[in-house]
Amino acid sequence: MSALPALKSRAAQPMVDGEFVFTEDDFRKIAAMAHGDAGIALHETKATLVYSRLAKRLRALGLTSFQDYCALVAGQDGVDERQKMLAALTTNVTRFFREPHHFEHLRDKVLPPLLAAARAGGRVRLWSSACSSGQEPYSMAMTVLSLAPDAANLDVKILATDIDPNMVAEARAGVYGPSLLAGMPDDLRRRWTAPAAGRPGDVRIADEARALISFNELNLIGGWPMKGRFDAIFCRNVAIYFDDDTQARLWSRFAPLLPLGGALYIGHSERVAGPAAACFQPDGVTTYRLTREMAR
Ligand SMILES: C[S@@+](CC[C@H](N)C(=O)[O-])C[C@H]1O[C@@H](n2cnc3c(N)ncnc32)[C@H](O)[C@@H]1O
After folding, report:
1. Are the C-beta atoms of 84 and 37 separated by less than 8 Å?
2. How far is the CA of 131 from the centre of ligand 1 (A)?
3. Model confidence over 25-35: pLDDT tens digits?
4. 53 in catalytic set
5. The whole model's pTM is what?
6. Is 162 marked active-site?
7. Which residue in the list 26, 37, 98, 162 is annotated as catalytic?
8. 10-89, what's its fold?
9. Would you state the CATH architecture of domain 100-290?
């Protein structure tokens, strides 16, 4: 019999030094779940980030190892925790009027003809497809209201969706602290926000803006129940977390949901690639117009 101590396989070696043992095997399981559930691609270079974000969940649950955590989230009893795991692994950073050129493009180029058509009985549909805590769809709504303060009387609707139910709930609440208002032009803040009841310094988005928006949970890599087309789709700072194939599929799914001339706004470090790229033409920085139909 060999006197040599059993060598641990690489997959069983700790990847990160810390309170909990976190092996390559644990990392692979978590990465596979994040990819399968939300399309999120986690490279091994993210091991420390994954560890630190999920170590909080292990402490909250009183677990002592990532092996136990992986077993929990992989099983029937771990459905809720799996959603919390995804929420912990995703980044929700957002701001009002983030990448302001998109809202200028929407205001100056996209909305004027659409609102004119809406005044003649037409409909306007906009989609914020990874809305996080709501700053993006409210910025869209305020942009609409800056041109049409009576938009509630027109057939103008904004769909705001996100995979994370906590973010959707925050977005729906529409209450923001003073530090979160940077980026919102003063005239729009004065006109379309009011002091929030019971929270000194916080503001609540005005009912006129809220009335334009429907908030819902939606996974961009899952099924989409929407049937009609959108005049503009905001899909910003989320595709960056997906691998190339998932991104390409996403652009291909947006194309049939836009009319010719419909606008697609993407994040500053994203680009439209894959089969759908031939259907879009740039119309400004990270702004595209559908110029060729794509089969549904
Ligand atoms: C960095 S935030 C971007 C928010 C906003 N679009 C912006 O640019 O400011 C990314 C958002 O994407 C959401 N997300 C991640 N994966 C998703 C998926 N598969 N489907 C829908 N939303 C997803 C996250 O929950 C998060 O709120």
Report:
1. no
2. 6
3. 999 999 999 99
4. yes
5. 0.94
6. yes
7. 162
8. Chemotaxis Receptor Methyltransferase Cher; domain 1 (1.10.155)
9. 3-Layer(aba) Sandwich (3.40)
